[in-house]
Amino acid sequence: MGNKIIIFNPRSANAKHRLPNTIIQVGAAIHGKYDYVFVDGNMETDPWETISNYFSTGEFKYFCLTVMPGPQLKQAIPYAKKIKEMYPESINIWGGYFASNQYKVCMQSGYVDYIINGPGDNTFPQLLDILEGKSEESMQLVRNLIYTNAEGKIIQTVKEALLDQDTLPTYPYEYFNTFYPLKDYLAKTFMGQKTFAYHSSMGCPFSCSFCAVVPIYNAKWKAKKATTIYKDFSYFKNKYNIDAIEFHDNNFFTSKKRVLEFSNLVLNDNIEWWGEGRIDTINKYSDEDLQLMRKAGCRMMFLGAETGNDEVLKQMNKGGTQSGQMIKDFVLRMKKADIIPELSFVLGLPGKNEKKVYEQILWDINFIKEIKAINPDAEIIIYLYSPVPTEGSELYQQIVDAGFSFPETLEEWIAPSWEKFDLRKNPLTPWLKPYMIDTIQNFETVLNGYYPTVSDFRIKGYKKSLLKLVSGYRFKYGWYKFPYEIKLLHKIWKYRQPEIEGFYSE
Description:
Elements: E1 4-9, H1 21-30, E2 36-40, H2 47-56, E3 60-66, H3 73-86, E4 91-95, H4 97-101, H5 103-107, E5 114-116, H6 123-131, E6 145-148, E7 154-156, H7 173-177, E8 195-198, E9 201-203, H8 214-217, E10 221-223, H9 226-240, E11 244-247, H10 256-266, E12 272-277, H11 279-282, H12 287-295, E13 298-306, H13 310-315, H14 324-337, E14 340-347, H15 354-374, E15 379-384, H16 394-401, H17 416-422, H18 434-450, H19 462-477, H20 484-492, H21 498-501
Parallel strand pairs: 1-2, 1-3, 3-4, 4-5, 8-11, 11-12, 12-13, 13-14, 14-15
Antiparallel strand pairs: 5-6, 6-7, 9-10
């Protein structure tokens, strides 16, 4: 058996696909040091055939996967298990949120050998050097690593401080292009004809109790300089003529100075862009700052509103200064700045009793209607609360006390009910009763009928008018039950949900 490496991105969605920056960054860490290939499950008709063809050459030993909760598990789990069965000498290395947050169940599966717990820029090459006998260093001194020692005990090594993002090796875009043409990832979105996906920072400075990123980055944040982003953007602009960027950072807007510097750099490049941020962070930007960003192409922002209820915001440990009133003021500011706020709400947190849980859901539904009255262009994305296994947090204790538990084997994670759970569309939370889920989903259908998402350019003109007409009385009077007529129109016109499909359109 040789020592070549497969870096695999399991299929994550059925829509158009973004550039898999995660695996490209992993490749960058070992580029020029080890022989490796990329396999992108999103671009392969049969990824298993590609992977097994590589292994059958006898030249490959390492199967490395990035694993997010949800759809990616459907390929990650069976493929990793199969490789181990067919090639017992092979070594499976996992990274990504799922592996870090569910490390016990991964390590106990018998087919995951190592987990990169957080960024692997140093961890991955150091681990390979030890396994290949190129380094005498003790495994325990490698940071961001999870492995099983000789006694069968799971060891979690010390976390590494986040690295200066500008000093990291450059992404091997040209090499990646030899496996999958980069141009195939530049899709048409509501922002432009060729939209480029980019990561400009690592981590997030906050510690919300419902977020999967928190245990991995310990409320730390490091970012590339605006000039570095501009250099990468210019490369793609010159080579592929991109006209839009999606920043897939956990928190793009943390540093106002960096955002404004970037805005000034792209001011005359005729591009549009989107990023994720926090309301209480961006609320500190002045009206002039927002105007500059809009002029520089900032078309839309994804923001975690979560709830308009201050008491629940506290329960979520949202940190910062966000409040229901601030959300209302903010969407009005966004309206004036002509930037679309895309607000996510998390409904169905545990409460003292069933009545309290339902009251909170109805309260948030009314709050969302208020937001729409203030700024009809505000995009609303509704998630059902799905517990994140951040052990030790107060919210975690509440969900355990309420009778919730996570799967105890990897195979259980790919049962149909858990797959939906991970898309935050079908929770297995004991305090959320079926009638509550119906209320939320029916309201969402009516809301999407009365206000179709602006990022879907299939529903416009007469389609939009008809949907608005059909759902208007329901929205106005709060009649959400059995909205079959809206569902039918959505089905006929293939309405898309941004929370599951992103902005991509056919």
